[in-house]
Amino acid sequence: MMSNTALLIVDVQNDFCQKGTLVVPKGDGVVTPLNKVIARARENGWPIIASRDWHPRISSHFKPFGGLWPIHCVQNSPGAEFHPKLDLKKDCFVVSKGIRFGEQGYSAFDGTLQDGTLLGTFLKQIGVNQIIIGGLATDYCVKATVLDAVKHKLKTTVLIDACRAINIKPEDGQNAIKEMGAAGAIISTTQEVLKMSP
Prior knowledge:
Layout: E1 5-10, H1 31-44, E2 48-53, E3 92-97, H2 119-125, E4 130-136, H3 138-151, E5 155-164, H4 172-183, E6 186-188, H5 190-196
Parallel strand pairs: 1-2, 1-4, 2-3, 4-5, 5-6
Helix pairs in contact: 3-4
């Protein structure tokens, strides 16, 4: 993998982890494998991108306002912060999504960088054609992001050991992995990616 590869970490935020308001079971377990890939990304000069849910307090995404989910990842709240042990530094590009009342914001490709640039546009601008993805949750925001990455003609690798599913239905996570693979994503692990890297 060359420098035209980027690492995209999806929504590893406090509200999706232990003691959050929308806990993904064992969500904290993605931090250790992701940190290994973050270290390799820095060694190889890959851009590191972290997406985040960044909802207004009143959002159609939330149950009290007609949505599916409990209130979570409200802008500037502790729950919206990245997991404290995730090794993100100032070299990380942050993509915010779901930032307005009517935006669901599942896919990182619906989000924008601080200057308003859409993620897909940004990746094109910096010459990325391969992307490695892990994070939360397999059956929602990871799946939506991966399917959009494939639509953007990016060679897309999913790190299944660095993802966790909500599993509202017990098979949701496995079905999401099958769907991502069927769409053309490469289903892999952090160990496989680390082996492939120089």
